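Q: Could you fold this chain for me?
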Amino acid sequence: MDLGIEAVRGLVQADSGLAVVATAREDGGLQASVVNAGVLRHPGTGVPVLGFVARASTVKVANLRARPQAAVTFRAGWRWVTVEGTAELAGPDDPHPQVGDVPALLRAVFTAAGGTHDDWATYDRVMADERRTAVLVLPDRIYGNP
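A: Sure. Below is the predicted structure, expressed as structure tokens.
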């Protein structure tokens, strides 16, 4: 069933933004891992996108640099929704022409996934120290069984 981005928002809230992201390896196989993700507006276009934050040194980020297609699946009970699309990266190792303030984008992704923080300066420092990258998935298809 084809769905809209609102179906994703509902499941983000239902299970703390936990989702499985799948990326393509060089050999054509798939790599999957669990992330916290949420829906936010693209910093350049304003279009709703799916976002999550990852260390720049992870396999998923390396895969997305080479092959920027991703599938991200959220679930809560028997309800699930998958977003497939093209990923854009924005971070200290992945400059993005439409992102001028990477720390602000990382905070926006974190809060879209349901995160809160008492000390944003510390959060920003940790994200910079860990060379965190924002991954923005521009939805091509959204489907599931809501």
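A (continued): The radius of gyration is 14 Å.
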